[in-house]
Amino acid sequence: MSAVVPLADAPAEVLADFTHLTDVGLRRRLEPERGLYIAEGATVIGRACAAGHRPRAFLVSERWLDGVRPHLDRFPDVRAYVGSEAELEAVAGFHVHRGALASMHRPAPRQLADVLRGSRRIVVVESVVSHTNVGAIFRSVAGLGADAVVLTSTSADPLYRRAVRVSMGTVFQVPWVRVEDFTDAVTHLRDAGFVTAGLALADDAAELGQWQPERDKIA
User: What is the Cα–Cα distance from 112 to 110, expressed in whole angstroms?
Assistant: First the structure.
C-alpha cells in the first residue's frame, strides 16, 4: 500500500482522529483517553518527530505534501491522506492554513523526580486554563533557557492542538510534567533544594530585578 492515499479513501477510524478539532471540551476529553494529540504544520510535526514522537496518520493538502515526505520516509508504515484544502476543512472543521495535520501517539508521561534531576530553573504553571497561554509560556521558557515546566492537573493540556501551535513545537523540546496536587509539588521542589517564588502583582512584592534568592535552584 502506498504511503500517500487520497483523502476520499481514508478509513473512518483515521478520519475520526481529525474531526471536531474546534470543540475544546471534546478534545480535552478524547485526546488523553485515546493516547493521541494533534500536531499542526510541517514545522511543528517535524519537531514532534525529532523529539521521538510517533505519528499515527497525516492529513495533508496537495500543495503541502512535500513538507511531510521526510516523515513518510522515516515512518514508512504511516499513511498520508491527501486532499484539497476544502476537503481538509470539511474534516477538521476549520481552514488548515498550514496545510498539514498529524495525529501523534502521546509519549509516556514523565515523573516529577526525573524532571527535577539536573534542573536548576523550573517554571511552575498553576491552573492556567488557556491553551494559548500555556503555549506562549512554553515558547518563553524555551527562549529564556529554563530547564523544565511543572504543570498542575488543572492547567490546560500542553499537547492540545492550539497549545502546540502557539508554542511553535517547544512543548516537544522542554521537559514537562503534570502533577495532581500543587502543594505536594511545591514540597517536592523544596525537598529537592529549590527556592520557590511566585509572580504576583502586589504592592508588597519584591522587584524581580532586585530579588536575590539564597540558592541557585529556583522554581
Answer: 7
Q: How far apart are CA 9 and CA 7, in angstroms?
A: 5
| Burial category of 32 from C-beta neighbours within 10 Å (exposed 0-12, middle 13-18, buried 19 and up) | middle
CA-nearest of 64, 118, 117 to 95 is 64
In this prediction the pTM is 0.85
List, as one string, the DSSP characters of 22-36: T-HHHHHHHHHHHTE
Note down pLDDT in tens along the chain; length 219 residues.
469 999 999 999 999 999 877 766 555 555 665 689 999 999 999 999 999 999 999 999 999 999 899 998 899 899 999 999 999 999 988 888 889 999 999 998 999 999 999 899 999 999 999 999 999 999 999 999 999 999 999 999 999 988 999 999 999 999 999 999 999 999 999 999 999 999 888 999 988 888 888 889 999
